[in-house]
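Handout for the seminar on molecular recognition.
Each group receives one record of this type.
Step one: identify the two inputs.
Step two: read the structure output and locate the region that could contact NAP.
Step three: write two sentences on what you found, then compare them with the reference statements printed after the record.
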Amino acid sequence: MTAQQKIKVAVAGAKGRMGQEVVKMLLADDSLSFVAGIDSKLNGVDVGEVIGGKPLGVPFLNSLPEALETYRPDVLVDFTTPHTVYRHMETAIEYGVRPVVGTTGFTSEQMADLGQRCRERKVGAIIAPNFAIGAILCMKFAATAAKYMPHVEIIELHHDQKLDAPSGTAIKTAEMIAASRKQFAQGHPQEAESIEGARGAGFDGFRIHSVRLPGLVAHQEVLFGATGQTLSIRHDSINRESFMPGVNMAIKAVMNLDSLVYGLENLLD
Ligand code: NAP
């Protein structure tokens, strides 16, 4: 494959836990070319030197517009923070650069606005709260189970440096469950919390619980209850490599999109 045919990719948050995995994945795929890293502090330093490898000849820049103007990537992968990602997506769409976003914590208003911007500019974009295939299957199986066992609670478990709660995966799972489950308020009508928050967050009549502990990566269990039986659907990402096949697939798929796709499940058959 010639350099010209390669998909040029910039990575926002390339110094972070997910960003470093993305850089390794890009370097291992001959059809992809890593052209720039974006970081809020580093500027002009070689990405390879910062993330503990040999020099790559690819710089960190602290200005996203400068990175997009100078290196003209086809795709911007973003694994940053809930406070940064919306602005990054706005900028990328403005420059006609396709965002592939794993950062979580969007509001529904932000999602609607970004969808509109993509449609207007005919720019493809993918936002996936979880890039692990097992997590996508967990969501799909949970949505199917909720049709037949509508009493459900979601428990999501993540490392203690995660900024947003509940996780984007739990919100997406809840949305998919709500779309297939008959809506009603679960539990006892007079249920009361003696400690605020004991019953978790309410979503469409059911509950989401968020656990944060060191040692965890990204985990989710969806519990169903019915007369005389329970069903648990659980997914565990035990390392961050688990997300990379999904990110790789999204980078290739976004090249053929002209609107925003929310959720990797929409790219699977
Ligand atoms: P992290 O290790 O804290 O990395 C975030 C990186 O973003 C840091 O290197 C940070 O570095 C950089 N950053 C912050 N503000 C920035 C800005 N304004 N411009 C450029 N870079 C900026 O976090 P992580 O564990 O990699 O997670 C990142 C996000 O991905 C989180 O939202 C997490 O929930 C999500 N996530 C998604 C999936 C999925 O499958 N979709 C999987 C795992 C995690 P500086 O502060 O030095 O700039």
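Reference statements: The chain has a mean pLDDT of 96. The chain has two domains: 3-127+241-267, 133-238.
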